[in-house]
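Field reference: sequence -> structure
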Amino acid sequence: MVLLLGPLSAQAGDLLIRVEGNQSTAPLYLGLVNADQKNWEPLLREQQGSGEQLIVKNVPPGRFSLQLYQDSNGNGRLDLSPRGIPLEPVGFSANPTLLKGKPAPKNAQFEHGEDDTLLDIRLHQPRGRVQKD
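Structure field:
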């Protein structure tokens, strides 16, 4: 006989992220937050990677928002204009418009269940900036 102690928890699936528009070999930074947060801090998960596919392992079910940016100048953060417009390639879950600057997490939310979730995120290239490799 096997006894289970404690409550049964929901399974945690992976987030499978396909990056569209990656035109550089500069590192990609990914930040995952609860969709109910007012801003992008604090991060639940932070990850660095490269290429056209990223995987975030063992994410419990819930409503989340994901930010992905390419650190073109190597300073480890997303550079923004004084008006909040991203100055480096950036993308968000749900692919919201960036006309008014960086969106709030609620505008980039997605639902993640117990199974794996596939997200297609388009990197928006900043206007008038030259990429550095």
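Note: The chain has a mean pLDDT of 86.
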